[in-house]
Design goal:
About 70% of the residues lie in helices and about 0% in strands. With about 160 residues, the chain is mostly helical. It has one domain. The chain starts with a helix and ends with a helix.
C-alpha cells in the first residue's frame, strides 16, 4: 500500500479523534472546518516522521492538539465558551433526552477549561491511560493524575452551579 493510501485509510479510521479536537478548540463551524483541515495537513506533513515508537492514536492526538493550540495562540484568539451546535450530536449516541442534556452540559463545562485542561480531559474521556496522556501532553504521569483530579472537581463545581 502506498503512502497516500495508508494515510487516507488512517485518517478515515481516526476522523472522530480529529473531529473531537477540532470541536473543543474552536467556537464556530467555520473555524472547526479550518482546524480540521489544518490538523490533517499537519498529520500529512509529519506522516514520514512517525516511527511507530508510540501508538498511532498517541501520535495523532499530539499532532492534533499541538496544531489546535498553535492556531489559537498564533491567531491570538480568546476562548470563553463555545456554543454546542448540532455537530456535537455526532459525538454522542444518547437516545434519552436527560442523558443528552447531561452530555451537553458536560461539553459546555469543558469549554470553560483552559487549553491544557481541555486536552487532558478529552484524552481522559477517550479512555487514555495516565501514561498515554503524559506522552501526548508532555508532562509526568503523576502530574496527569493530579490534573485529572483537579479538572474533575472543577467540572463538578461548574455543573452543580448550572443545575
Amino acid at each position: 500500500m502506498d503512502k497516500k493510501s495508508r494515510f487516507t485509510k488512517i485518517i478515515k479510521e481516526n476522523e472522530g479523534l480529529i473531529f473531537k479536537v477540532a470541536i473543543l478548540y474552536t467556537n464556530s463551524s467555520h473555524d472547526k472546518e479550518d482546524l480540521y483541515q489544518e490538523i490533517i495537513f499537519q498529520l500529512w506533513k509529519s506522516f514520514d516522521t512517525f516511527k511507530e515508537e508510540s501508538k498511532l492514536s498517541t501520535w495523532m492526538y499530539r499532532v492534533a492538539m499541538n496544531t489546535a493550540i498553535y492556531n489559537l495562540k498564533s491567531a491570538k484568539k480568546q476562548i470563553n465558551t463555545i456554543a454546542i451546535d448540532t455537530e456535537t450530536d455526532r459525538l454522542t449516541e444518547a437516545s434519552d433526552e436527560s442523558e443528552e442534556r447531561r452530555i451537553r452540559l458536560l461539553y459546555e463545562s469543558i469549554q470553560t477549561l483552559n487549553l491544557l485542561e481541555r486536552g487532558i480531559i478529552l484524552l481522559y474521556l477517550e479512555g487514555k491511560s495516565h501514561q498515554e496522556i503524559a506522552e501526548i501532553i508532555g508532562i509526568t504521569t503523576t502530574n496527569v493524575g493530579t490534573k485529572v483530579s483537579r479538572i474533575k472537581e472543577k467540572l463538578k463545581l461548574q455543573i452543580s452551579k448550572t443545575q
